[in-house]
Amino acid sequence: MGDYVHGYSDYEEARLRDQADSLAVVLHEGTCYPPGANVLEAGCGVGAQTVHLAANSPGACFTSIDLAADSLKVAMRAVAERGFANVRFRQADLYDLPFPESSFDHAFVCFVLEHVPDPIRALACVRSVVRPGGTITAIEGDHGSAFFHPQSDAAWRTIRCLVDLQAASGGNALIGRSLYPLLRDAGFRDVEVVPRTIYADAGRPEWVDGFTRKTFIAMVEGVEEPAIARGLIERAEWDRGIAELKRTAGESGTFVYTFFKGVGRR
C-alpha cells in the first residue's frame, strides 16, 4: 500500500466527513444493495462513506476493511453513533484479503485506488472475493479535472504540489480518467464509467461551502508543510496560491470538478 498523503490528523478526519456528507447525493446516487446482500467495502478509512452505504442499504450486510487500526476505531464509533447494525469491521490488507474466493455479492471501493501503487492488482484482489456475476462499484476523483474562475497559475501550482506529493508516495491524484481501463484490465466485464461533475458558484452556496471550501481547498491546504519542506514551492508562493484558490469560493468565483464512478461485473 502507498502512504496516505493527507495524513491521519483530526483535521483530515473532519475533512473526510465533510467531503462524504457534501458529496453523498452525487456519489451514492444509484448505489443501493438488496436485503441480504453481502458487500465488501475495501478501504473504509474513518467510515465517512460507510455511514452512507449503511443508510442507503439497511438490509444489506457490509464488511468494511482498512489497514489502519486507528482509522477503524474512528469508523466503528461513527457507525455506532448512528445506530447502524449492518456493518462489521475488520483490519485487513487490500493486497492480502482474509476472505475465501467469492465471499461477497458486491464490492465498493471509494477514494482508495488513488493511494495504492498497483491499482490493477488491488482491483484483482477485490475481484477474487466477489462471486461470479457480482459487481464492483469504484469511485475516484481526478485533480486534473478541476477548473475555476478566476483562473490562476498560482492556485494551480498549489494543486500541483498535492499531485506531486501523492505521486511520490506511490499514488495517483489523476486516476479518475483511468478508471475504465483499470477495471477492465483487472478482469471485470460490462464496465461502465460515468462522470459525476460538481459545479459550485454563489448561487449554490451549499456546494461552495461543502465542496469548494471544506473538501477541495481544505485538501490542498492540508499538504502545506510537506510541500514546503520538500522544496516543491516557496511559502510566499504557496500563500499566494491558496489566497487565489479561495477567491474561487467568493461571490464572483466558480469551481468545477469531476469524479468518476465505475461499475463492473465479475
Summarize the structure.
The chain contains nine helices and eight strands.
Secondary structure: elements and pairs:
Layout: H1 10-27, E1 38-42, H2 50-56, E2 61-66, H3 69-81, E3 87-91, E4 104-110, H4 119-128, E5 130-141, E6 147-149, H5 153-168, H6 179-185, E7 189-201, H7 205-221, H8 224-229, H9 235-247, E8 254-265
Helix pairs in contact: 1-7, 5-9
Q: What would the average pLDDT be, to the nearest integer?
A: 94
**Class inferred from helices and paired strands:** alpha/beta
Count the beta strands.
Answer: 8
CATH H-level superfamily: Vaccinia Virus protein VP39
Strand content: 15-25%
The main sheet comes to: 8 strands, mixed
What's the number of domains?
Answer: 1
Helix content: 40-55%
**CATH fold type:** Rossmann fold
**How does CATH name the architecture?**
3-Layer(aba) Sandwich
Give the terminus-to-terminus CA distance: 24 Å
| Structure annotation, total helices | 9
Indicate the radius of gyration in whole angstroms. Answer: 18 Å
SSE order, one letter for each helix or strand: HEHEHEEHEEHHEHHHE
CATH class assignment = Alpha Beta
